[in-house]
Protein: RDD family protein
Organism: Microcella putealis
Amino acid sequence: MTPDSELPDWPGQRLGLPESGPRSIARIGRRIGGIAIDWGFSVVISAAFFNYEPLATLAVFAGLHAVSTILLGGSPGHLILGMHVVPMAGGRIGIWRPLLRTALLALVLPAVFWDVNNRGLHDRAAGTVLLVK
């Protein structure tokens, strides 16, 4: 643990990211809104095609999240709320990062534990960060 005097003033400061605006770390309200939108889409698709089976809903959520992040840089909820997933090292997001990130997100717990930069364990494992567009 670091002493309070060494804590950053805002999430992303240690990463060289701005406090707010474009390229800043997406805050919790947007993240919750994004996942609610994604889950809502997944429920509608699951109800329409899979009789709203719980595992089907989770599979639709994971598929929607992974494919859209690979192709568009974020899930529908991310994009609607002005967020996108980028690799910490820069460059393209690729395929393995969204797949790993989504698999860990589907487990729930890695997504609810995060560091001082508001990066969940799923983002840390995948080497990604969720930023404001």
In short: The chain has one domain: 25-132. The radius of gyration is 15 Å.
